[in-house]
Every structure is written in C-alpha cells, then in structure tokens.
Amino acid sequence: MASVKPSESSEKVTIAIANMIDCSPEFRYGSMVVGKSYNTESLRTIYEQVRSRSAMGVLRRVLNYNRLGNTTHFLLNKQAAYAGTVVVIDDEQESPLGPIRVTLNCLEMDCIIEWLVPI
Q: Taking CA 82 as the corner, what is the angle to CA 52 and CA 116, rounded to the nearest 5 degrees?
C-alpha cells in the first residue's frame, strides 16, 4: 500500500506497486493505492532483486525487527519501484514522496522470511 501525494499520479503509484508485487493494485480510500495477494510467488520480483543487489541482510533485519507475531512489514522506495528497482528503506523519510509499505501476514512467517531472505 502507498499513499498518493497531491503532486503524484495514482496511475504511477499503481504501476510502482505492480512492478514490485504481482497483484492488481487499486486506488482506494481517496488517497491510497492498495494491492493484495495471497500467493508467495507474488513477491518474486523482490525475491530476485534483493539477491542480485546483495540486500538480503538488510531486508532480513527489517523483517525481523518489524515482526509482531504472524505479521511483519518493510518499506520500499516508491520512485525506485516505479522504475522497476527494489530499494528497501529503513525510514519513511528516505522516500521523498513516501514509501510503499509491504505487509506480510502469514501463519508460517518463519518459512516466508526464510524463503525470501535465507541466511
């Protein structure tokens, strides 16, 4: 999910999310683009790019730090996502137009984290 700032196009934010997650994002709630998936494979772009960039350690740290039971999240730079590039950020301020927040909710969270960013 990502907010759409007044200076942004909701279409571009939708594209940014679709570039990162295999889903059909929708403009909702007046200023948010939300995409949902119930399939681990929808994270394939993130899976592949964090490996090619050697960013697995960063993403693993963020997933574990933000974990609360069966839920965790991480942030992606929205501008980089629009260009098709996965850039994991620690703080919302690192993305001038706001981040894309990816929330994972799964009963087998350990398995998802291990698949996405193995040790």
A: 35
3-state helix, strand, coil in the chain (%, to 5): 40, 20, 35
How many structural domains are present in the chain? 1
In which domain, by residue range, is 108 found?
2-116
**106 φ, ψ (degrees, to nearest 5):** -155, 140
Helices of type H across 21-97? 44-52, 56-65, 78-82
d(CA 80, CA 82): 5
Q: What is the mean pLDDT of each run of 10 residues along the chain (119 residues)?
A: 94 96 90 94 95 88 96 97 96 92 96 93
Torsion of CA 40, 42, 45, 49, to 10 degrees: -20
Q: Give the domain CATH number at 109.
A: 3.30.1440.10
